[in-house]
Known about the structure:
Blueprint (H helix, E strand, L loop, with lengths): L1 E7 L19 E6 L1 H4 L4 H8 L4 E6 L3 E3 L2 E3 L3 E7 L4 E8 L6 H12 L4 E8 L6 H12 L4 E5 L11 E3 L2 E3 L2 E8 L3 E8 L3 E13 L2 E5 L2 E2 H9 L1 H5 L10 E4 L6 E5 L1 E5 L4 E4 L8 E6 L2 H18 L6 E8 H7 L4 H11 L3 E8 L2 E4 L6 E4 L3 E8 L2
Parallel strand pairs: 2-3, 8-9, 22-23
Antiparallel strand pairs: 1-6, 2-6, 3-10, 4-5, 4-23, 7-12, 8-12, 9-24, 10-11, 13-26, 14-15, 14-21, 15-16, 15-20, 17-18, 17-21, 19-20, 22-26, 24-25
Helix pairs in contact: 3-4, 7-9
Amino acid sequence: MIVKQELLSAKMTLKDLPATSPLASASLVLVFGSRDRFDDSKLAPTLKSRYPSAQIIGCSTAGEISGAGVMDDSLQITAVQWEKTVQRVTHTKMSNMQDSFGTGADLARQLKSDELKAVLVYSDGLRVNGSELLEGFKSVLGDTPIMGGMAGDGFNFNRTLQIFNDNVGDGLIIAVGLYGKHLIAATGVGRGWKPYGPPRKVTKSIKNVVLELDDKPALPLYNMYIGAHAAKALPGSGLNFPLAIIEDGKRDIEKIRTVLAVDTTQNSLTFAGNVDEGQTVRLCQTNHDRLVEGAGDAAHLVTSHANTSQTGLAICVSCVGRKGVMAEQVADEIKLVQQILGTQTTLTGFYSYGEFSPRPDTADSVLHNQTMTIGYLSEIK
């Protein structure tokens, strides 16, 4: 496995790329950048000319991640040449969010094989139900680990873009199947959020829309806990007060859901992922140090399942909500991840509208919110 990177800072343009590609023979190129970068009509042809043999995939972001830290309005280009691993890439364009499950299943059928070891998935961040998409993949692929995330658009939540070779647009879902016994694939998930307040039962919901908690209208109850000042700033302030879904019969967090929208007519909350009737939830809060520690937890999970002393690639997908909380100190979580994974691991990734990864120490791939997820890839020498 060979990994090479190119980075354009906010002040640089495509013309500032070196004359020669660092890895023209690459088989896969991951591209993460701001929506403005993806709106550049020269992006796709420039990348294809530099990496003529590669499948080029990626998405717009709410911030770009590299070993140098976190950047905005940059362009991160990561080229990978497999030495023993086989890849297969497919994609589709969503026509209706209600088709998310079926779309995931259709893409999974195209990748299914006894040799399949891991799947990378990058999707539109606003026109796809990430929970349903992952359920569709799992209905075909079972316990095969799925890693990746949903595209971002800064804190605008307006339109996200994806790239698949010469096609740049919205509504795309891109999936990469990785095959063979020489592939090393490990995942890590870290949170750093602490539940508070009493547990509440979801008594009425429709997929990602929660209408009632403990048989009471959801929005007024939520507003009571976050306070009048934060309630006036919804839905933006909801990034600071996600819901934790609690595992059945336990006090542990199963996954976290972020508020995307509120409806004062229905008194409902719309989340960035499904919240099922009957689930137990609690509100969460956090601070900078807890979030950094959570990112470290994700990196330690990777090192517990993979030897990171050899060449490897860590694709970090962290939630836009974490970036909002940590603000100018957001790079601290990336610095800790790099420190734990070591200098032989190349970092790339982005701040997202949803993260795809198995839950910690399980084979259950789900949509996460408010987490740092790491998909680590390497090859047995």
